[in-house]
Amino acid sequence: MNLKGRDFLKLLDFTPEEIVYLIDLAAELKDKKKRNIPVDTLWGKNVALIFEKTSTRTRCAFEVAAHDLGMGTTYLEPSASQIGKKESIADTAKVLSGMFEGIEYRGFEQAIVEELAENSKVPVWNGLTNEFHPTQMLADLLTIREHFGCLKGIKLTYMGDARYNMGNSLMVACAKMGMHFTACTLEKYFPAEELVTQCREIAAETGGSVTLTEDVDEGTKDVDVIYTDVWVSMGEPDEIWEERIRDLSPYKVDGKVMTNAGEKAIFLHCLPAFHDLKTVIGAQMGDRFGITEMEVTDEVFQSERSLVFEEAENRMHTIKAVMLATISTDSRTQKKRKVQVKIDPGLLEGKNLREVHYLPDREIKWLLVSEDSDINTMDDFVVVTVEEALEKFPEIKELMATESDRRIMFRKGRHSNKWYDFLDKA
User: Fold this and answer.
1) How far apart are the C-alpha atoms of 412 and 286, rounded to whole Å?
2) For 283-320, what is each residue's pLDDT tens digit?
């Protein structure tokens, strides 16, 4: 499978097969690292790491993974760059993609990382936005598969505030992989209805499901994975803390929840977690609100059923897989390629596409021919199957001939509603 030049912005952009490919690659890279087998095939390349929100796991994972692959990293934080201040996101993308082979962004709105990708000539990876956290999802899926031996059919319950990146991303990941996702929280903290509908449509194709419930006993009964995240982000006012703690305390992961889930259930958390008062923020939380733990009890967090530290390690292996899969030796030229198209008249008679002619390593021109064409060569053109063409140009997911203007169209993803032509973006 060829993912060269692809952005990694959210799992909605990837097929289940592509997600499995990345998990398989991560497992292979993890095994090689454990056996001290180097995989420094990207030696001499460099990646930019943009962090508008600080992080321990994401930064360390990207830096160690890049180093293992032979690459250099440049860490950019708001105080050390002009991103969004003197220089626009679009201009930043154009500047950085002229110097680096890949760009990571961790920050705020999903629209920012999407704009970076739109204007970049190299792959862009989402390290976290308000809406999605796709690199965390790969680590979670790898951890679950390592423990249970499979993903399809696994039941995962997310407890807490499911409106943002973790609730959204877990719901998408489960739907894509044929898993059963439950958001167990108050209705006001359910994911957005539009995304729920989209995920239910995906789950209907993969054999998964999406359930929303306020009932803790019902939502956690006989499930495989109990997952939670912090209820409040740093910097939010006291009244928000008070509201979340009041609303979500019934959804704290404790021994009773794990017992209800069953003996086989594991506990996951993307970290950091407020499970005791042994941090500055934890101590402040205790002083201000009179509690000793928040979203998970220390008993559960420290138990043998908690795989949070294995999960954290897997951030590095899965991020390494994403970078290795998407960076190519000529990634600047592979991404967002424009081509000229000639169409065999046979296509306009409802024939199926069977062959694609293209001229490699020069100005790209394609000749698409129908299944009954007897054309084998044309000047310097070579013949490849449609499947080979789709693999070579991963941005193309589906092909369609239109009779009205005799253009060939492609669609970026199975669930995308936008069609593009080979000459200009729609």
Assistant:
1) 49
2) 988 998 999 999 999 999 999 999 999 999 999 999 99
CA distance 290 to 249: 13
Q: Calculate the CA 112 to chain-centre distance.
A: 15
Distance, CA of 64 to chain centre? 19
Supply 80's token pair: 């050390």
Whether the link from the prior residue into 237 is cis, omega within 30° of 0, is no
- Please, what is the angle between helix 308-326 and helix 16-34, to 10°? 110
Q: Using an 8 Å Cβ cutoff, are 123 and 333 in contact?
A: no
Sheet holding 124-128, edge to edge: 72-76, 46-51, 102-106, 124-128
- Could you give the 3-state DSSP secondary structure of residue 374? coil
User: Which residues, listed in sequence order, are joined to residue 50 by a DSSP beta bridge?
Assistant: 76, 105
Of 191, 202, 10, the residue nearest 114 (C-alpha): 10
Catalytic residues: 106, 133, 136, 229, 270, 315
What distance in Å separates the CA atoms of residue 211 and residue 157, rounded to the nearest whole number? 9
221 Cβ contact partners less than 8 Å away, ≥ 6 residues apart:
260, 261
CA atoms of 226 and 182, how far apart (whole Å): 10
Give the tens place of pLDDT for each residue, 369-399: 544 444 444 444 444 455 555 565 554 445 4
d(CA 370, CA 355): 7
- Please list, residue by residue across 137-147, b when 16 or more beta carbons sit within 10 angstroms of its beta carbon and e when fewer do: bbbbbbbbbeb
